[in-house]
Design brief:
8 strands, about 500 residues, Fumarase C, Chain B, domain 1, two-stranded antiparallel ribbon, Ribonucleotide Reductase Protein R1, domain 1, Fumarase C, Chain A, domain 2, mainly alpha, about 60% helix
Length: about 500
């Protein structure tokens, strides 16, 4: 916005602290200049996004104040036009501050007030810095305070960015559910303590991931509802001092139109400004989803381990070479990246928690810290879900031959023998199987404890992935057989 000739010149503005020089052509004013000289330039994509939230609030506040009859049509129109231009990106270079700034986000608010006021004055034919027609505090900031705008901006950011989080998480679930349907009826080894346990359906393993994520999405939806209550109109402390009595209702109506959300005034404006608990609640729901993503990513890494000296039951898409020194090596790169992102998001929730508990009396001045971490959590979570979906889950396949081989050479089916042979007898069978390398099924038949046909029924892997009735007649037959009693005698497990 500023050319080299303008940069060599400067205009002088005067405020409560005295005179200060501002580059000619700049749309910000004295407050922003002082903040810039104190905190430095730290703008990034996320701070610009957050500035945009403030611009939207200025837009709806102008309309609300006009509806209240305290802002005339000419000033309203010029503010509206200035806001529309700012939202188009025209003034991005005029918002130079980052999140590391004075408490309560006052520099964010005043930077927007000054830019909108200067552009509105320019539209109305007055020079920058004159504030002849539109004043940053009196007009753009009418019926508002940095104190109620900050907590409102946090809620609006959550409402906006949560749409992308939900969409990417639901798309990940849909991909996983399609995979589960593909492998319906297929069985593999289940594991606990990283040890072989009992059979599990492949679809059951996948649906545990998907249903957990869907539960997390539901928790996000519940937490999101609290974001619809905003304290805008409470001004400095929640009392509404210097605000029109109808401003809060009018501004919520205007915000609802703009965002297509059912935004309402906070039941308790004092709490809405001083307490950030609803924001923490939403961040905690985001943390829950990220914790699930870490779990799913770790499961995938373990199941991919190998491919010749590990489990190797799943094959993930090859997205990059796995080593700079080991040719042909392929790593679970996407699950690793998802875990890195998700753990980072979880750490950001801790920062929000720390900020939430650090509010003092009628204000929490740490809203810029919350804003930084909340926006990063929302964007990062959306990225993690999308990455896991498009670059991993969509191409994930189970190696059914490996799954069958692992089933055949382990003792996981032995648990199904417990109701028929008893825990102690089965434990002896398993120990001998591990020592000799002979399958438990083969040992049971060799001791005459059950026939091949009987074992086919007892050890049907697919049947064992859901609750089922025990054949009590077969239990009685086995327990009363001579072979069973001889086996107990041999192993020293016979009742005394």
């Amino acid at each position: 916005m500023v050319n080299s000739k303008q940069a060599m010149q400067a205009r002088t503005e005067k405020d409560a602290l005295g005179e200060i020089k501002i580059e000619q052509g700049r749309y910000w004013g004295s407050f922003t200049q002082r903040a810039l000289e104190t905190f430095g330039q730290g703008a990034d994509a996320n701070s610009l996004y957050y500035y945009g939230i403030y611009v939207k609030m200025k837009l709806v506040c102008a309309r609300a104040n006009n509806a209240c009859g305290i802002l005339d049509g000419g000033r309203k129109s010029s503010i509206e036009k200035a806001c529309a231009e700012a939202l188009s990106g025209k003034f991005d270079s005029e918002f130079p501050l980052g999140f590391y700034q004075a408490g309560a986000g006052t520099p964010f608010n005043m930077n927007v007030n000054e830019v909108i006021a200067n552009r509105a004055n320019e539209i109305m034919g007055a020079p920058l810095g004159s504030y002849r027609h539109v004043h940053p505090n009196n007009d753009v900031n009418m019926c508002q305070s940095s104190n109620d705008l900050g907590p409102t901006a946090l809620r609006l950011a959550a409402l906006d960015l949560s749409i992308g989080v939900r969409k990417s998480a639901e798309e990940l679930c849909a991909t996983l559910e399609a995979k589960a349907k593909k492998y319906e009826g297929r069985v593999k080894v289940g594991r606990t303590h990283l040890q072989d346990a009992v059979p599990i359906g492949i679809s059951q393993e996948i649906m545990a991931w998907s249903d957990s994520i869907r539960s997390d999405i539901a928790a996000l939806g519940i937490a999101r509802k609290e974001m619809l209550e905003i304290p805008l109109g409470g001004t400095a402390l929640g009392t509404g001092i210097a605000a029109h009595p109808e401003f809060s209702a009018n501004v919520c109506a205007q915000l609802s139109k703009l965002t297509r959300e059912d935004i309402i005034p906070a039941k308790n404006m004092h709490a809405g400004i001083s307490m950030l608990n609803p924001i923490l609640g939403y961040a905690s729901a985001l943390k829950r989803l990220n914790a699930t993503l870490v779990k799913v990513a770790n499961d995938m890494k373990i199941l991919m381990s190998g491919p010749k000296a590990g489990i190797a039951e799943i094959v993930l898409p090859e997205v990059e070479p796995g080593s700079s020194i080991m040719p042909g090596k392929i790593n679970p790169s996407v699950p690793e990246a998802v875990e890195i992102i998700a753990r980072d998001m979880i750490a950001k929730e801790h920062a929000i928690e720390q900020a939430t508990m650090s509010g003092q009396l009628q204000l929490n001045v740490l809203t810029p810290l919350v804003a930084k971490n909340l926006i990063e959590m929302l964007k990062g979570t959306e990225m993690a879900c999308a990455l896991l979906d498009r670059k991993c889950a969509s191409g994930l396949e189970y190696d059914l031959d490996v799954c069958k081989s692992n089933m055949d050479r382990t003792y996981v089916l032995a648990t199904a023998l417990n109701p028929y042979l008893g825990y102690q007898a089965v434990a002896e069978i398993v120990k001998e199987s591990l020592k000799s390398g002979k399958p438990a099924r083969e040992l049971v038949m060799s001791y005459g404890l059950a026939s091949e046909k009987e074992l086919d029924g007892i050890l049907d892997a697919q049947r064992l992935t859901s609750p089922g009735q025990v054949d009590n007649k077969l239990v009685q037959k086995i327990r009363l057989s001579e072979s069973y009693n001889k086996y107990l005698q041999k192993t020293g497990k016979a009742p005394k």
